[in-house]
Design brief:
The N and C termini lie close together (about 10 Å). Helix 3 packs across helix 5 and helix 4 crosses helix 5. The chain is mainly α. The relative contact order is 0.18. The chain has a single domain, classed as DnaA protein, C-terminal DNA-binding domain (Chromosomal Replication Initiator Protein Dnaa, Chain: A), CATH 1.10.1750.10. Helices cover about 75% and strands about 0% of the residues. It contains 6 helices and no strands.
C-alpha cells in the first residue's frame, strides 16, 4: 500500500492526503490509508513520517477509522484503497 496507490484509487492528490486540510473526505481518506498501512505491518512512527504526522495523530486516526467502520461512505473509501 503506497500513497501513490491511494491517490490513484481515490482521486485525491498525495499533497492533499499528507496536507493539513481537515475536510471530512480528506480526513477519512487519511484514516483509511493509516489503517491499510498499519495492516501491512508499518509502525505508527513510519506511518506518521509518510503522512507528515506525529505517531500519536496516527493512533488517533486509527481509532477514528475503527469508529467509522460500517458506514457506507467510509467503507467505499476503504475498499477503493484496499
Amino acid at each position: 500500500m503506497t500513497l501513490e496507490h491511494a491517490s490513484r484509487a481515490t482521486g485525491i492528490s498525495i499533497a492533499d492526503i499528507t496536507g493539513p486540510c481537515r475536510v471530512r473526505h480528506l480526513c477519512w481518506t487519511r484514516y483509511a490509508v493509516m489503517e491499510a498501512m498499519r495492516a501491512k505491518g508499518l509502525s505508527l512512527g513510519t506511518i506518521g513520517r509518510l503522512l507528515k504526522r506525529d505517531h500519536s495523530t496516527v493512533l488517533l486516526g486509527l481509532r477514528q477509522a475503527e469508529k467509522l467502520r460500517g458506514r457506507a461512505d467510509f467503507e467505499s473509501i476503504r475498499s477503493a484503497i484496499a
